[in-house]
Amino acid sequence: MKQVPIIDVYTAAKLVKDGDTLLQGGFGMTGNPVHLMHALAETGTRHLTFIGNNTGEAGLGGGRLLRNGQLKKIIGSFFTSNPDAVKAAQSGQVEYELLPQGTLAEAIRAGGAGIGGFYTPTSAGTPLAQGRETKVIGGVEQVFIPSIRGNVAFIRAWRADTAGNLQYRMTENNFNKAMATAADLVIAEVEEIVPVGEIAPEHVHTPGCFVDYLVQATLTLEDLGTSASVSSSKKVDDLRMNMARRALAELKKGDVVNLGIGIPTLLADLITEEQGIILHTENGMLGVGPVPADGGGAMDYPVNAGKIPVTALKGSSYFDSADSFAMIRGGHIDVAIMGGLEVDEAANLANWAVPGKPLLGVGGAMDLAKGAKRLIITMTHTNPDGSPKIVPQCTLPLTATGVVDLVITDLAVFAYPAGKLTLLELMPGATLEEVKAKTKAEFLKSERANE
């Protein structure tokens, strides 16, 4: 059995050369090779192309390289959460390329598998498809995405043996498994290195043949940034809870459900284990439970797509981001419940870009909107300025076309029977006159709707 060299973080950092393409594992700061990234930040290495879901938080992980001016280009799915990334992109300090989260994961997996690229329906008809080759396959418009490989991959695992076999912990797998296959040089930062044989073969997630070097580094609370503890920032009021309860009424026992950020997250507190609804999170978990009652953080618990620590219900499972999005695109998610900025008469959705702000964060929204068997949108009926969100035609950048099945607002519930926007019912306290006055789109009225 081969022995993989064990080196320190500074020796590892020096293996990255000027102009390299660097893959960085992690989802936020979970499963993030933060010690390797910080060691690289102490070198003079520059002109790097960074590839990862996000750059990390401001001053942490890839965020530190960005702040140092070491990055030439960033490629990922969600940079909005790092104000330094937004500023650097707006000022032209860095080039940037935005990919839907599932597309990014699959492009990396394809690169590691020696596949040149693939077609996907995700992002078709949206700004992210502009300039890319498209083709209609099986009656569905699809976008061609080239595969991704790097010169170096920095990844994070929980345990390694001296042969380089890796084991990931909970939702720390995310992008790490695919990235371990997709670079010329792979350096794994791990919590613990054990002798060969101490990791049972069935517990090996990444075989040692993919790994070139091991670095041992102990994770601390400071390394996890805002994922370190449970957030209490959920915005809860009667109107939002009414929408969450109405969305919950659409779910049935056995449904596999993905909850987006905002109002949809409130459903997680309403769902009981007895209801048999299985929550999925795109960063690699099936069977998501409520937030920890003991106030524990990401050192002790998995995290959801909002980077919030959660518990695992009986029968839960963990997997990497590429497998998670294969579930989504493969039609294995029964219902996605997402927030919205605009929905129109043609069932188009816009929910990822706000006017006047840089288009730097799409996450998994495009994949979920296209891939889920049913899409429910929960949103306030109007914007803070009173302008309608249900419109004849979306004016904001599209998330997906023709995908919305049900819209639940604080005033009404709409659907698309026979392809026509139709008012199904009024929400408590709402009147038909108010709905008409605050809805710009033309709609039909079903017999179920109350006067």
TrEMBL record:
SMART domains: CoA_trans. InterPro entries: 3-oxoacid_CoA-transf_A (IPR012792), 3-oxoacid_CoA-transf_B (IPR012791), 3-oxoacid_CoA-transferase (IPR014388), CoA_trans_fam_I (IPR004165), NagB/RpiA_transferase-like (IPR037171). Pfam families: CoA_trans (PF01144). Keywords: Transferase. Transmembrane segments: none annotated. Belongs to the 3-oxoacid CoA-transferase subunit B family. Belongs to the 3-oxoacid CoA-transferase family. This is 3-oxoacid CoA-transferase subunit B. The lineage of its organism: Bacteria, Pseudomonadati, Bacteroidota, Cytophagia, Cytophagales.
